[in-house]
Design brief:
Length: 448
Amino acid sequence: MKPQKYIRKVLYVLYALCLLVFFSSSGFRDKTTTGGWYQQFFPYLNGSTIASLTFLNSLTGFGVTSLNPDTLCYILKTTNGGDNWNIIFTYHTAATTVSFNKIQFANNIIGYASINDFILFKTTNGGDNWNTIYTGLYPQDMAVINKDTILFVYNSLLTGGVWRTTNGGLNWSPLGPTGGSGQPYNIYMFNKDMGFCLGGQMRKTTNGGVNWFAIPGETYSGIQFVDSLTGWKCYDSIKKTTNGGINWVTQIAPKISHTFDYSCFSALNKDTIWLVGARVFSHAPVYKTTNGGLNWGYQIPDTTLQIYSYGYISFVNAKVGWANPGGNFPAIHTTTGGNDTTFYTGIKLVEEYVPTGYLLKQNYPNPFNPQTNIPFELSESGYVTLKVYDITGREVKELINGKWGKASYVAEFNAENLASGIYFYRLKFVSDATKKEFIDTKKMMLLK
C-alpha cells in the first residue's frame, strides 16, 4: 500500500470517530456534571422565576412561577426528570402583585396550583388542562391532603387563618386560628389529621385543622415527618422530635459553615433525610444523614455557578432527587444519590499542613471520663473510617465515615452512655490516588 493511501485511510478512520463522538453528544443539552449532580435549565420565562416545584416520580414533575413584566405567570411540566421543561399553562392578570406560590398533586392526575389571588387552578388529567375555581381567598400557602381536601393559609389581620375545602375547592370553611395578629402564612400537613402551621408562633393540629395549639418557643422554615411521632424541622438549627412535635431536640449541624440557614427537607425514611439551605464559601451544600440525624454530612454538587443557597429539595427514591435555589437559577439533579457524603462528628481541623505520612495517635486524656480526643494525620486525601470497639470486638461508635483531605485532625469521642473498661479505636484510610490502605488500632481506658 502506498504511503499516501495509508495516510488517507487513517484520516478517514479519525474523521469517522469524530463524527461518532459528535452525533452521540449532539441534540442534547450540555450537562455540567459535578460529583453525581448535574444542572438542569428551565425554558425562557421572560423574567418569571420558579416559585414551587413538585415531582410525582423520577420522570414527571411540575413547577409554577412568579409574575413576569408582561403580567404572565406559568405552569411548567417535565416528563424526562427535569432535563426539559415545557410551559403547559399561562395565566394573565392585570394585577402586578399576583403570582403562583404552590403546586401539589393528590395523585398522578389530580393536582392544584395556588395563586395569591381569589382563584385556584385544578387539573384532572395530569396537567393537560387546568380549570379555574373561584375561592374568594388570598392564600400564601397550600396543603393538598387528597383529591377533595385542601387547606389554605394566609396572614391577614381580619380574615386570615386556616381555610379548608372538602369538595375540591368549590366551598371553603374557616378553621381556627382566624382573626387577630399572628395569623399563619405557612402550613404543613403530614396526613388528614396531623399538621403544623406557622405565623406568630408554631401551632399543631390533630383533627384536620379544626383546632390548633401552640408549640411554645418553636419556629421553622422547613418541616417534615416520616410518621406521626418522628419528624424534623429547621430554621437556624436542625431539630428532631420523637413525640409528634411536642418537644424538639437540637441536632449537631454539619461543621462546615459559621452561617446556618436551613430551608427544606426531603425524608426518605426515619434514617435517610436530605436537607438544603446554608451557604458554604461561594457554593451551597446539600446535607444528608443516614442515621436519623445523629450525624449530618454534606455534598457540594455545584462548582460552576455561585449558588448561595437552595430553597427546595426532593428525592423520590434513594438515587433520584432534585434541588433548586428558586429564582431564575437552574436546578440540579442526581440519578445516583449525589456524590460521596462527607460526615463530620465532633472533628476539629488542627492544622492544614501536609503531614509526612498516615498516623493514628494515642488518645488524650487516657484514662478518660467520659470524653477524650483522638488525633490523626493524613498526608493525602482519601476515604476515612474511624470506629470504636469494646473489649469483645463489638462496634460501639462510628466517629468518621467519609472523604477527608490532607491535614491534622482531632476526633472527639464521648462515652457518656458506655460502661467503664478497655476500648479500642481503629482508623482505616484508603488513598484517593493509589487506593492503598492504611489501618491502625489503639487502646484506651474509660474510668467512671
